[in-house]
Amino acid sequence: MDQLGAITMFVTTADQGSFTRAAAYLGKTTSALTRAVTHLETELGTRLFERSTRRIALTEAGMIYLESARQVLIQLKQAREDIDQLQQEMCGILRVSAPPSFGPAFLNAVCCRFLNQYPQMRLEVELTDEFVDLLEGSYDLAVRDGPVELPGLIARPLTANRILLCASPDYLKRNPIEVLPDTFNQHDWLIFRHPALNPHFWWFTHGGERQRIAQPVPRMASDNYDFLLGALLSGMGLQFCPQWSAAPYLRRGELVQLLPEIQPEPDEFGSKIHVIYPEYRRHTRKHQAFIECLGNYLDEQALH
What we know:
The mean pLDDT is 87. This protein starts with a helix and ends with a helix. Helix 5 (102-117) crosses helix 9 (285-300). Strand 3 (92-98), helix 5 (102-117) and strand 4 form a beta-alpha-beta unit. The chain has three domains: 3-85, Winged helix-like DNA-binding domain superfamily/Winged helix DNA-binding domain (Arc Repressor Mutant, subunit A, Orthogonal Bundle), CATH 1.10.10; 92-161 and 270-301, Periplasmic binding protein-like II (D-Maltodextrin-Binding Protein, domain 2, 3-Layer(aba) Sandwich); 163-266, D-Maltodextrin-Binding Protein, domain 2. By secondary structure, the chain is of the alpha+beta class. It contains nine helices and 15 strands. Helix content is 39%, strand content 23%. The strands form five sheets. A five-stranded mixed sheet has the order 4-3-5-15-6, with helices on one face. Strands 12-7-13 form a three-stranded antiparallel sheet.
């Protein structure tokens, strides 16, 4: 029996929860699917489904086999796509996930450049602060800060996640008190709230020593970074910003960096921004093309 065909029929039966529904979905007979699953069970020496007159259910062995069988089919499909792309202009869909703040900072420009460079490609970009499972969600890649050591995934560093203290020239004119750790409480603050960030203290490295400073009461706090960035540019106070976000405003003079000798720690967001993708897609042409486009843009913006 065709092994790949048998695996396909097994996975479809597990997904549909019925031999009858799986047969209709594949356009085959119920007996053909039953023979395919029986063939796999004979080869493995164990039952994959518990069968009754009303329903079927995966056995423990069936659940283990299903996970591997899905990956086999995904990788074979990807291999076919890669071979097709070698023979023609790159085309298809690339599904990307990233935090919302990455969009206006650099991802919008990267995506537009990528689509202009590869007119047959399409992008589906989901901007969310939620942690997404690339494998379960069928994403091609993610641009992410935070934890990246995950099984089955490759994490390639893109740029440093360096944190800068910033203010607008208008704010500094309005409140001319020198910005020092001892005068933090005499300034207006815009503070980003996130479950990964300590809501009471900031940690700094200064002169090789790690120091803790109590956070002042914010003039404005929010769980949306871009909302606070707008207030920062409008002169509403001081804010800690990632360099990848603040860089264009600093170049244009719309923001000023303060206390460059004090390096805030990036907390649970980590010290680098990474692009993350499944191991089995490491040689996929569309992935490598997007990552190259992303890296080139960050180089041009001096964000590496």
